[in-house]
Structure formats: structure tokens, C-alpha cells
Design brief:
Blueprint lengths: L8 H9 L13 H17 L4 H27 L6 H26 L7 H25 L9 H30 L5 H5 L2 H27 L3 H16 L7 H19 L5 H19 L19
Helix pairs in contact: 1-8, 2-3, 2-6, 3-4, 3-6, 4-5, 5-6, 8-9, 8-11, 9-10, 10-11
Length: 308
Amino acid sequence: MSTQIAFTPEELVLQQLLEYEEEPVRLLPSGEELKGRLRDEIRLALSQVESPQIHSLVETCFEQIVVVFGRLALIESNLRKLDTLLESLSIFDVLQYEIRNFVQFLETEALANEGLDAKLGETLDGICYGISHDIKRIFERELSGDIRNQTTPIVYGKIVHSHGLLTNCFQQSLITLLQLFNRSVDPLSIFNDFEERVRQSLILCNDLAALLRVVRTAEHQPTPDSLNQLVQSTLNFRDNSMHYLMYRDWRGYERLALALIAAIEANSDAKDLLHQFNCFLELLYGHVKMRAVLKDMFPGEGEEAEEE
């Protein structure tokens, strides 16, 4: 007897709203414009830090993030001109060096500082984890090897994709750090990217719903085919849509997903892990639907909205 999971009405709405197109270019404010928007927000955040040592540490974090946005704005300005692809790749080379130095600063200086309180330490640790995850994907996969010898469409596509990943990564890093000191910070007033956030959140909702169906099918019918599909879907989500989750959820997803995959590949009983993973995904799905940018699409989901 079939135990196929039916689409819910809200999932059908998501399917209608989503359009699978080439990834759009992420439009950033110019370097100077963004600095202007951030100046007061960063000043306000730093005014909340009493310790001179921690003040300097947090200020360095903000400065490094703003520098990255300046580089990304240069790449974005080049994306309208195909004869600047090599220039963009050179900017990515500089970015790789700067970002890896920033990660090293976070690991060896910031997180090792004994003056950090628990909340700031947890925030910086999450930022470090998220950035490390993305730079590995970008500079060891997307932009690795002999990319300069690839065809123009391939190079352009990889640049656009990498630009989008880094933009999302550092936007989330910046907003997470700002909101630690001022919960009223509005990301949309800084980046003015409402449509992009809606797109990301809809993709995330759609992919979480699809993954939930695969997990539930595997729970009801743990056949070799359903379990193999679960492994592939879990890895695909990790390599793609997971980047639209908030950093705090990345580790939880990877921990449960890898434990489940290991159990399946070892032919162990994965019943309990399947249940835990299903509950975790349901929680994530609920949180994403409560994001402020989706409030008109999922009315009544809750008073508080999750916003990156």
C-alpha cells in the first residue's frame, strides 16, 4: 500500500510562487554607500562595548566585513561587462586572502580572548563557522583549478554564484553581529534587498518541504531506494539551500544529517535518527515561514518573525 506524502496547500502555493531561473546577480550598494548606511549602526553597536580590548576586537570584525562588501561591490559592477571576468577573478584572489586572514583572526585572537562574554563568543564562533564553510566551498570548489581556462559562460556563472554566496554569507555575519548589540536593526534598511530575501526564503521553504517528504517516506517505507534518495537529498540540501538558513542552524543540520547518513550506510537501525531529523526539519520549516519577508504569505504563523 502506498504511503506517498501529499502536498499541503501551502506547499502548492510555494510551488506556484517559485520560479527556477538562473541565479540573479546580487545587487549590493556601492562600497561608499554601504559604509554610509553602516556608519551609525556600527557606532551604536560599539558604544555598547565597555571593555577597550573587546571594543577593539569587535571594531576589527566590523572593519573586515565592510572591506569584503567593498570588494563584492567591485565584482558586482563588473558583472555587466564580460571583458572584466579576469579582473573579477583577481578580486576574488584578494578576497580569499583577506577572508582567510579574518577567519584566522577570529580563531586565534577573537575567540581566544578571555574577556569575551558567552553571547559574544557564541556569535563570533557562529560567524567563523559560517564563513569557513562558505570559503571552502567557493575557493576549493567553485573557483578552484584552471578556472581561467574555462569558457566564458562557465566562468561567468561561477563568478555570479560565488558572488551570491559571499554576499549572503557576509550580510548574515554583519546583521548577526549588529543585532547582538541592537535587536531593532532592520536588515532591509541596510541592504535594500527585500525581493532577494523573499526569493531565498521561498526557495528554502520549498526545499525544506521537499526534504521533509523524502524523510517521511523513508520513515514509512525504509526501502533501499527511499533511503538512498534520502541520503542524496540530505547532501543536496546541505550543499545548496542550507546557506539560506541562519548560522545557528547549520551545525544542528550537519550533525543530524551526517549521523543519519552514517547509520544508513552502515545498515544500522536509523528509525530514531529519522524521527529526530524529521522533528528538526519541521522546526526549521516553521521558523522560516515566520520570517518577516514572508509574513503576508503565511498569516497566523506567529507574532515574532525570524530575520537575518
